[in-house]
Please model this.
Amino acid sequence: MPLWDKPDITLIDGHSGSGKSRYAAELAHKTGALVVSIDEVYPGWDGLDAGSAHIYEHVLRPLAQGLSGRYLTWSWAEGAPGQWREVPAGTALVVEGCGAIRHDSAEISENRLWLEAPEDIRRERALARDGDMYAPHWTRWALQEQRFLALHDSRRLAQEIRKLG
Model:
């Protein structure tokens, strides 16, 4: 039994445009948890695996051990690493983004939620959010999502599945 209080960790996953960011913001507002968006970490358009692994290694695992965590942001405008952000030990945390639920992160989280929406709605939301920057990368990103989600079986590891329309 650890000598520290295990932080409340919620993981919110799903395909791009499924409503993860909005849901995470609402949950954090209600609970006072800190939101970490993996969108801030993916190192470019081919970085889903790297972003997910980075959050697990540098944030989730340390917090589960009673330590502080930190993560390196990605500057999408510069196409380069950004700043390190700290996550104090014991922080109630909501991690949202594709790749939040993976085999090893599922073992140390309290809550795991999978969000779904029809592809046409997801695409509309994602392009409204990120505009022309995302449009040429939609298929490229979707293929990474499919591969990652098949490898980690993220939907099955979720404790709750919500269909948003």
Q: What stands out?
A: The domain at 9-163 is CATH 3.40.50.300 (Rossmann fold). The chain has a mean pLDDT of 92. Residues 48-64 form the longest helix (17 residues).
